[in-house]
Amino acid sequence: MPARRPGPSARLKLTLSYAGLLLLTGAVLLVVVWVFLLRYVPDNDRGLLGIAPNRYLLVRVFFPAAATAMGVLVVVGLVGGWVLAGRMLAPLSRIADAARLASRGSLSHRIRLEGPKDEFRDLADVVDVMLGQLESHVAEQRRFAANASHELRTPLAISKTLLDVARTDPTRDRSELVERLHAVNARAIDLTEALLLLSRGERGSFTREAVDLSLIAEEAAETLLPLAEQRGITLDVTGEPTRSAGSAELLLRMLTNLVQNAIVHNLPDGGTVTVRTEAKRYASVLRVENTGRVLPADLVPTLTEPFQRGTQRTRTDEHAGVGLGLAIVHSIVRAHDGHLELTPRAGGGLLVTVRLPETGRGRG
Fold first, then answer.
1. What gap in Å lies between CA 106 and CA 112, rounded to an integer?
2. N or C terminus: fewer CB in 10 A for the chain?
3. Bridge-partner residues for 239, per DSSP?
4. 248-287 as b/e: b if 16+ CB within 10 A
5. Which strand (E) or helix (H) includes residue 298?
6. What is the DSSP letter of 173?
């Protein structure tokens, strides 16, 4: 930020304003006295009606006293204005101190301004809320960075170990090493692509167009139908045309993640996944419901955090996730100005509800 040249403080400006206002008020009163009183006093040696002093004597007596009063007003205006401005601006000083602490990385400080509701208290409350959100966001980003580093380091460490084994043991089966390296590399690529997709959703850098969620749901279900049949899962897609505005590619990824998550985290056999689309007033609603294990209520809100797989949700098969499925869904929904709700089913499994603005009500 470019350096600013020094200037008078807000307190000095307010003080001068108070003093100037008092001085102007006094001057107006003097003008009123002159216009409506003194100029009508006879200016002769007999005075008013022969018994009152004339204008010359009144002016000589009045104006010195008026000048003294004006001087007092200036002093009172400067001193009183300085004190009053200091008291009025004290909340701004506390807000500025909090902002300086935040700029140095300390986000735990809160202003907590006392007193009745006014403009300064509103500003202080808004800053407190902003600091709380920033602190939460920074903590979330730090956890994300730490988890991402850990997740990326794992396949790299495995690859290094496999290469070291291949180098030190020439008799080992090379085809097995190649297959394991291929699997580890594929997982690292999946993780990297998921991180890029998550970042894209957070930035909201996409072009909006009219989309039909029911068609996207059918496309996602058709893609994942072989996986559902392989696991003995019944996949059902129902609903009416449901239009919204957004990126067809990102919304397809969102639905694919939801349906795949519902299939993978289901009963071992005989489970169901239901996808429903519904057009409501001012909203396009998508619901993905699946059977499965009973999920603790306190676990569900954490499932949208990056790398959160939940209790007994880590997979060891070919569909092992990278812990970003619902985090990507949450990011895409938020980028489309929507709302994501996760509700554990009493009999086990999860109900995911996505509400998106109808066509024409999203951000431009």
1. 16
2. N
3. 277
4. bebbbbbbbbbbbbbbbbbbeeebbbbbbbbbeeebbbbb
5. none
6. -
Cβ–Cβ under 8 Å, residues 70 and 26: yes
Report whether 275 contacts 288 (CB < 8 A): yes
Q: In which element (H, E) is residue 344 found?
A: strand 339-344
Give the C-alpha separation, 260 to 199, whole Å: 21
234 dihedral zone (left: phi>0; alpha: psi -120 to 50; beta): beta
Separation of alpha carbons 110 and 91, rounded Å: 13
Residues in a beta bridge with 272: 234
Read off the amino acid at residue 258: L
The conformation of residue 303, written as its DSSP 8-state character, comes to G
Backbone φ and ψ of 219, nearest 5°: -65, -45
Backbone angles phi, psi at 210, to 5 degrees: -70, 130
The pLDDT profile of the chain, 364 residues, written as one tens digit per residue, is 566 677 788 888 888 888 888 888 888 888 888 777 776 666 665 555 555 566 777 777 777 888 888 888 888 889 988 998 888 888 888 888 888 888 888 888 888 888 788 888 888 899 999 988 888 878 777 776 776 676 677 677 878 887 887 788 777 777 877 888 887 787 778 777 767 766 666 666 678 889 999 999 999 999 899 889 999 999 999 988 999 998 888 898 889 889 999 999 999 888 999 999 999 888 899 999 999 999 888 888 888 876 665 444 434 344 445 567 788 888 889 888 899 999 999 889 999 999 999 874 444 4
